[in-house]
Amino acid sequence: MAVAEPRLRTVGVILAGGVGQRVGSSTPKQLIEIAGRPILEHTLALFDAAPEIDEIVVLMAPGFTGDVEALVERGGYRKVRRVVEGGASRTESTWRALQALGPQECDVLLHDAVRPLLEPRIITECVEALKTYSAVDVAIPSSDTILVAEPGPRGELIKDVPERSRLRRVQTPQCFRLSVIREAYERAFADPDFDKRPPTDDCGVVLRYLPDVPIYIVPGSEHNMKVTHPVDIHIAEKLFELFPVRAPRPSSQAVRDALAGRTIVVFGDGRGVDARIADLARGYGAEVFAFSRGRDDSHGRDSPGDPHGAPHGLYGVRVEDPRAVADALAHAAKETGRIDCVVNAAAVPYRGSLAEASDATVAETLGVNMLGPVNVAKAAFPHLKETRGHLLLCAAAPHARGRAEQSLQASSMAAVVRLTQALADEWAEYGVRVNCVDVEGGGASPLGRPSGAPAPGDVARTSLEVLATRLTGQVVAGASVDGADVDGADVDGAG
């Protein structure tokens, strides 16, 4: 029987050697915060969560390696093996990274740290392409006409207009078999004319010095933008708002390993997303306390089930009442001695014009949808600080602008998103993670399921996957791309 060749390790190299001159900042642009955390951390989190990546090396601007090491430790990015000081140019930084990888053959993905919106799909396709090709680039068709300019008497003149259909805009990662990219650079450094006309990317080095090596193109994404100029910071921030990140897809066993024996407290109405979260978490072996706003007939777990499909273990708690929330959490902590995760999915489904809303409706809607998450977060912090736990807020992430008939909902949900990002920053030093699941834009809403939205079970599954990761400060789409685990097992079938 043939023996399968051992799989080469796959290393993600994050190139973060820039100093931020073009964005007009004294701070390296990769350390500028977007959507609640540094640009570099968004990129690190993507590679750390990618199942195809075995280890990570970070190339950082001189004088800032300590900042990266602190970020890695705080975020628990376990795949990061080394943080290396970058060189004076991209070429020098890349060579330092290649030297840091050691003599053993491997596959290398070189990625710009300031492309934080990379889709996991691209990493997967690049690694797959490296099984056939030893050099792989990522590119997208050019939507603009590109011209070639030449100097004129009073400025530049058009020399040529290449056929647009053949033009591509290059992105990263750029991917190679280590021996191939090393040989290309060794030949480049031996060329006395290399510095006179240096390539602007690594595939250019391979193309020039190893012309017989074919370079495969993986389709990129318009979202995979590079943060280079001041306006790019605002564009990237808005893209994070409009397109929630997708949760990493741990296997069913990985979710079980992360949640088994943990104490999870869930607040909600007992019949929607919160009910599914509670049931699924129990299936993974977690100790679950499910507190509903509308019931008070049990102690929060192991009580008789509700005939209408609500989860086992309901206990009346109004999240707009801070004392009730604190008492509920204290009860759970007393029962098991710890609280590892707290989920708030309580919401009031009001849609209509503000002018027609009664004072009581306004008070209840904002009390539950806006003040409720604040009360839950404040009461949960002492418990989560002890366990370095996880707070998950379920909300319908707002559109780019408010819409008619949604004034109360839009304002309160926008507040929850900002609360998530702020608390992730405030609590990072304590190891407490804070995330928000977008239960409407990417899934089912506790405010009423919009047309075409995935079912509450899909949102619940994603919520548990988020709880099983190191993500923090993120608004995560409430349903996965394909609705299935990476190992083919549906989380809904847990237990």
TrEMBL record:
Catalysis performed (reactions): 2-C-methyl-D-erythritol 4-phosphate + CTP + H(+) = 4-CDP-2-C-methyl-D-erythritol + diphosphate
InterPro entries membership: IspD, IspD/TarI, IspD/TarI_cytidylyltransf_bact, NAD(P)-bd_dom_sf, Nucleotide-diphossugar_trans, SDR_fam
Basic and acidic residues: bias regions: 295-305
Keyword Nucleotidyltransferase annotated: yes
Keywords: Isoprene biosynthesis, Nucleotidyltransferase, Transferase
Region (Disordered): 295-315
Single annotated GO MF: 2-C-methyl-D-erythritol 4-phosphate cytidylyltransferase activity
Residues under site feature: Transition state stabilizer: R22, K29
Protein's GO biological process: isopentenyl diphosphate biosynthetic process, methylerythritol 4-phosphate pathway
A Pfam family matched in the record: IspD
EC number: 2.7.7.60
Uppermost EC category: transferase
Chloroplast found in the keyword field: no
Functional pathway: Isoprenoid biosynthesis; isopentenyl diphosphate biosynthesis via DXP pathway; isopentenyl diphosphate from 1-deoxy-D-xylulose 5-phosphate: step 2/6
Residue numbers marked as site, Positions MEP for the nucleophilic attack: R164, K226
Record family assignment: Belongs to the IspD/TarI cytidylyltransferase family. IspD subfamily.
Functional summary from the UniProt entry: Catalyzes the formation of 4-diphosphocytidyl-2-C-methyl-D-erythritol from CTP and 2-C-methyl-D-erythritol 4-phosphate (MEP).
Protein name: 2-C-methyl-D-erythritol 4-phosphate cytidylyltransferase
Organism phylogeny: Bacteria, Bacillati, Actinomycetota, Actinomycetes, Streptosporangiales
